[in-house]
Automatic annotation (TrEMBL):
<keyword id="KW-0998">Cell outer membrane</keyword>
<keyword id="KW-0472">Membrane</keyword>
<dbReference type="GO" id="GO:0009279">
    <property type="term" value="C:cell outer membrane"/>
</dbReference>
<comment type="similarity">
    <text>Belongs to the MipA/OmpV family.</text>
</comment>
<protein>
    <submittedName>
        <fullName>Membrane protein</fullName>
    </submittedName>
</protein>
<feature type="signal peptide">
    <location>
        <begin position="1"/>
        <end position="24"/>
    </location>
</feature>
<keyword id="KW-0732">Signal</keyword>
<dbReference type="InterPro" id="IPR010583">
    <property type="entry name" value="MipA"/>
</dbReference>
<dbReference type="Pfam" id="PF06629">
    <property type="entry name" value="MipA"/>
</dbReference>
Amino acid sequence: MRLSKSLGVVSLLAMASTMAPADAADLFFNPEPITTSGWTVTLKANLRAAPSYPGSDDLSFYGFPSVSLRRAGTPERFSAPDDGVSFSFLDDSAFRIGVVGRFQGGRYLEDNRELFGLRKVDWAVEPGIFVEYWPVEFLRARAEIRRGFGGHEGFVADLGLDWVQRFGAFTTSLGPRLALGDNEFTRTYFGVTPFEAALNGQVTPYNPSGGITSVGALAGVTYEWSPAWSTTAYVAYRRLVGDAADSPIVKQFGSENQYSLGLTVSYSFNTGS
């Protein structure tokens, strides 16, 4: 796995994020702002375990830093652990819209020697837009639509619904997930050309179409140690479906069941006046 290159891109994406003020669901965020002037900066250390590449049955571990910024005295918005790095340009009490970015890891022979003969897929960055809506104060709906650059040039979308509740210092979230990809995306990660099949010898040619690529769920919990420190842990499950699940790469070398988990430690402080 090209970890050093991957971490550099993830860090750049993460450090581009900012947080906009005002939210309908203040109940679920820090009720005690550190101050009422200047800015609140939140530094995060993230550790993740996720499939080595889409369809893999092996997990790869990686870590990266991230940072967010908001005006002091405004509550920190709820953010699910699998949200893309986002910046809102339209923000009211229940509705947000803005830009988002994600990092998609690549697929390399060193990830699995059985991939011999299959194309190398480099990592990709996926800029796009997001829409977020709170129909009630404990339920959040979010959609992201992104376009890949680098390893794949396709369009992808992620849809999620989160039930969010606060219990003292704990904030919990749970909800379903749905992922989609177009022809370009699915053929990049799940397709096999006749030439690749001949070189590999264990898979047959396969030309998938776009559509729903996975369904699943995510559960997360955040513990607020103090107004400055918090820890978030999550576990997620996605099951590949449709043409993605039928790929000989998945059936021969990987798994339809995709698990991931992670841990984030956050520290917030004030700067400016």
